[in-house]
Structure formats: structure tokens, C-alpha cells
Amino acid sequence: MNVLTDFIQKKTHHLLSAPQFALMKPSAILINTARGAVIDEAALAAALENNTIAGAGLDVYEDEPGVHPGLLDNPRVTLLPHMGTWTVE
């Protein structure tokens, strides 16, 4: 799943949280390269810890530059710095 949104507002803040993770297949891998606050990082960490989903790849974070500790320590999570501004056209 790739989350794409153009900006954060009330209806997109924590668009993906515990109820949405519960609907995903256990093999799901969440990839977010859009906006950090679209994902509820605490709920994502819990979903990974409980094997609700298989993994995550993030280059944006809810409270940048901070990252939820449950994501930092999880071997099924890949964390990268946001590279969107490095795009050359």
C-alpha cells in the first residue's frame, strides 16, 4: 500500500490507524512517502508488534525529526530520510 496525499488536514491526519491496519492482510507492507501524519505511528508500531501487518517502509514521520521508538527498534521497518526534494527534473 502506498499512501498518497497532497497535504495534512483534519480528514487526512491519522488516515491509517488501528482500525485500518486490522483490515489489512498479515502479509501487508505499508509504504508511506507522502506525509508523516497520515500514519498513526503508535498504531503502526502496535500492528507490527502484534503481527497484524508484515512490515513498513517510511521516509516521512509523524513528528519529524522524531520517530516512534517502536518503529526504530523493529527489524521489519525500513526508515529513510525524506528524499522527495532531491528530485531533479
Annotation keywords:
alpha/beta, four-stranded parallel β-sheet, 15% strand
Describe the 3D structure.
The protein has 89 residues and is α/β, with parallel strands linked by helices. The protein contains three helices and four strands. The protein has helices at residues 18-23, 41-49, 69-72, and strands at 2-3, 29-32, 55-58, 77-79. A four-stranded parallel sheet has the order 1-2-3-4, with no helix packed on it. α2 (41-49) links the parallel β2 and β3. The model has no long low-confidence stretch (mean pLDDT 88).
Number-wise, the strands total 4
Q: Tell me about the biggest sheet?
A: 4 strands, parallel
- Uncertain regions spanning at least 5 consecutive residues: none
Mean pLDDT score, rounded? 88
Instruction: Give the assembly state of these chains.
Output: single chain
Q: Numbering strands along the chain, what is their spatial order in the largest sheet?
A: 1-2-3-4
* Rg computed from alpha carbons, rounded to a whole number of angstroms: 12 Å
Report strand %.
5-15%
Distance between the termini: 26 Å
**In DSSP terms, counting alpha (H) and pi (I) runs of 4 or more, how many helices?**
3
Give the topology string: H per helix, E per strand. Answer: EHEHEHE
Question: Helix proportion of residues, in percent?
Answer: 10-25%
* Shape by Cα distribution: globular
**Structure class:** alpha/beta
